[in-house]
Amino acid sequence: MDEVPGSVGTSASFALRLGQTLFSSASLLFMSVGVDFYGYTAFCYLVTIMGLVIPWSFTLALVDGYSVLVKCPLRQPGIMAIIVVGDWVLSILTLAAACSTSSVVDLLLHSNEPCPSKFCSRYQISATMAFFSWFLSLASSLFNLWLLPSL
Amino acid sequence: MDEVPGSVGTSASFALRLGQTLFSSASLLFMSVGVDFYGYTAFCYLVTIMGLVIPWSFTLALVDGYSVLVKCPLRQPGIMAIIVVGDWVLSILTLAAACSTSSVVDLLLHSNEPCPSKFCSRYQISATMAFFSWFLSLASSLFNLWLLPSL
User: Fold this and answer.
1) pLDDT < 50: residue spans in chain B
2) CA–CA distance, B12 with B4 (Å, rounded to integer)
3) ipTM of predicted assembly, 2 dp
4) How far is Cα B133 from Cα B95, in angstroms, rounded to an integer?
5) Spans of all domains in chain A
6) Which of A97, B4, B9, B91 has the most beta carbons within 10 angstroms of its beta carbon?
């Protein structure tokens, strides 16, 4: 059985999951603390999706950390398939949320009554963090998909 | 060699490609004819991406139609890999464009000065068509990815 760097149970996967958790937490915090995000559908959607991504990535980070410590990677096809599909769905949803948020921010910046620059820069940072989280999530998903046929 | 329904050179793939071409052309037409789309970044992005998807899908529809007629499917790993990667990238870009467009339309519908209902309904139809096109493009990409390891 090959060892694919970045697949479940390796230290690279642990780093990817930790990055996803950090970026999605940052996106959630920048969007929700002190900003009236609930006035816009796209921002509510981003907050919802980040609330799904954070527990998913954090749980898998714990699993990876444990696998690295006991040197016994998880290699059951059923569980791997669930992880691949979950990653896939969440990465699509994260991309959708990031794109929606950034297009709304762009519209707000160029509208007739521009939003206060403090708010808009926070929205922008939040969208950027969501894009980073999407990128890491896509990488995890691809690495695990690569491993799947060899199980 | 397995015959995966929906992979390059089958009649199912021809139907998928034809659907992509139709939906993306409809999305482009609803967005660009008689509507001032160039005032919004997200709408310009949608038009650009649809302008990429239409020739790509149309070319592959021609290839599939030819393969079905001469009963000699295309099965070269290099070309298949290019098709899978191209489908993948275009489906991500289409999803991004569809999400951006729909979130901007939602914002326009709920803003203080709502857009004329004729324009907004056209934007909505265009975004819906882009989502359909994304879905078919994802299906093509998954079917071809499934075939790739067996080549």
Assistant:
1) 1
2) 10
3) 0.84
4) 9
5) 11-150
6) A97
